Amino acid sequence: MSTTFPDLGSVSQWQEELYKHLHEHPELSMEETETAAEIARRLEAMGYDVQHVGGGVVGVLGNGDGPSVLFRADIDALPVAEATGLPYSSKVEDVMHACGHDAHIVCALGAAQALAESRDLWAGTYIALFQPAEETAEGGRSMVADGLLDKIPRPDVALAQHVLVAPPAGQVATAAGPVLSAGDSIRITVFGKGSHGSMPHLGVDPVVLASAIVLRLQGIVAREIAPADFGVVTVGSVQAGTKSNIIPDHATLLVNLRAYDLAVRTTMLEAIERIVRGECAAAGSPQEPTFEYYDQFPMTDNDADVDARVRAAFVEHFGADRVQHLPRIPASEDFSVVPDAFGIPYTYWGLGGFTADQTPVPNHNPGFAPAIQPTLATGTEAAIAAALAWLTKE
Hints:
The chain is of the alpha/beta class. Helix content is about 35%, strand content about 25%. Strands 1-2-4-3-5-16-6-15 form an eight-stranded mixed sheet, with helices on both faces. A four-stranded antiparallel sheet has the order 10-12-8-13, covered by helices on one side. A two-stranded antiparallel sheet has the order 7-14. Strand 1 (about 50-55) and strand 2 form a beta hairpin. The mean pLDDT is about 95.
């Protein structure tokens, strides 16, 4: 460990206890009132200038002239019934921290305290941002809409991390360029004409129409996206009708898509609407389909220079054997909303959460239970090391 690195002794004393508390008391997206209050209380005690913004919390700590660094942690839980069997399992029915955001909070608070207690080691401004509603892609936009850009100093760079099933616990992984995909969900309603099951010729069957759409959508990636490009179109739900002998008057499809290239994303969105409208016309649908876009996540595209600087800091602090390459992950995240609003570069890295004696369980699974240590210690150190890549005194 570098001799200029903060002493984490006082931080490690409370982190595990807070982690267990947060895990026991998860809160859903845009409902994180107690979580936000706990974060604000702790930041204020550390000496940060604290504000509640758009459902989240921001703490600003000025320490003389120098760069301004924003470190973001997401704070919401998921509508998942926990099945880990942990002694500190969620006490909230059908809600759990199944994505590691409880660890993100604790690591970010640990970094905030360590930097507050070691101001002789750095200069500039440190911004600890705790964002709500990452899981629904609402939180970053909510904070920006609530005036975030005018309420805090403009950062020079933004940083974030996420607990993952790989690399192994105790390691970090990072990469330049697109690391998380853009993601969109679409609620599509197509319309038919109701009739009795014995008289299909008097109706327009939206079940048959929806089935044709599902099959046609599979041709988008196979035939409209270049083989070298990445794209996914998934129909996760088809709902229509209530009884076997009634032809309903509408059907609803829930469609999700993923892309690492915004041009590919545009191609898929345009193709979905074209195919749906075309199938509706072919079926003689009595009215135009409707499209409701929701849970729209931007792509996470790490700045090459920022990523290189963070990787170098990680190698210096952890050693090269604990710093891995982060492969592209076709999941989505709204972290980039805030740095994009400021017009600043960013990077986002992975944090190992499972030890060699554990069977890794994927994020969002009811059994998701990362090892408390060395995950919290590694995440805290990674946040500090990355921030000090800009803030360390010359």
